[in-house]
Amino acid sequence: MESFPSLLFERLPGAAQKKPEYPMDRICAALAQIHAVQIDSPFELSTAFPFDDTCMIWLPTFEDYWKNKKHIPEITAAFATLAPIAQPLFAGEMRAQMFSRSVHVHCHGDVTPKNVFAGESGAARFFDFNNAFYGSRMADVIDGALEFSLAEKYIHLANFARFDKFVEHYSIASPLTLEEREDLGKWRDLIGVIKFTKEVRVMLERPTENLRRKRALAIAEFLASVPRG
Predict the structure, then answer these.
(1) Dihedral in degrees, nearest 10, Cα atoms 203, 211, 53, 160
(2) Residue 130, class by beta-carbon neighbours within 10 Å (0-12 exposed, 13-18 middle, 19+ buried)?
């Protein structure tokens, strides 16, 4: 086909479980299985758009929103809380060290309940790889830990006890390295600040979007609640 890539899809019967409680053991095992493809049989992948490029889109956006936008009082307070947490993340050297200390794999890029379903056998499977990228698996792991804590549109059922549970079950399926565990807090802050900023962006575009406000505030409250040495 003139060297153009193509995707082949197989129809797999099953149902998405968007609402808690989630079968974390099966979901995390499915994510680890995606990552294992690169871990078990490494092959060279493009690094034309590294994950740090994503960081350099959203971290400056966080700073811009914080300094130059007028927000409702709750969001203004959330920015004030998150600013000292976000500040260290602006150091490119620190992010580079985080990336170098983590296993690089083919990442899903959008680890949310809406993108995983249970097949007839009960096994979990991921779909929708539109945001896939090659980079640190910790971006996927922490993305999933936050999203399954937030419970998507079921924000009234958000529970950040699922954060640790997600990381724990992933680690059972694919043990994290010592360096990844040491950097876990930095990854939590980095992905959390990016997610918060994305929620605020939608709020600014759609001021009546109440779900996004609740998600942003939940993320900020969680990040602020975590003890730091």
Answers:
(1) 140
(2) exposed
Q: Which two tokens stand for residue 23?
A: 């079968």
Residue 216 CA to residue 64 CA, distance in Å, equals 16
Name 29's Cβ contacts closer than 8 Å, sequence gap at least 6: 124, 169, 173
Whether the Cβ atoms of residue 138 and residue 74 lie closer than 8 Å to each other: no
Mean pLDDT of 180-192: 98
As a residue count, the chain comes to 229
Instruction: Find the helix or strand (DSSP H, E) in which 135 lies.
Output: strand 133-136
This model's pTM is above 0.70: yes
How far is it, in rounded angstroms, from Cα 107 to Cα 104?
8
In DSSP terms, 124 is beta-bridged to 118
**Bridge partners, residue 135, by sequence:** 105
Average pLDDT, the chain: 92
Please say whether the beta carbons of 113 and 28 come within 8 A. Answer: no
Side chain identity at residue 228, one-letter code = R
Cis peptide leading into residue 44 (ω within 30°): no
Angle between helical axes of 184-205 and 73-86 (0-180°, round to 10): 150
**In which residue are the tokens 């899809």 written?**
9
With beta carbons less than 8 A apart as the criterion, state whether 147 and 105 touch: no
The pair of three-digit structure tokens given for residue 7, joined into one six-digit string: 């995707």
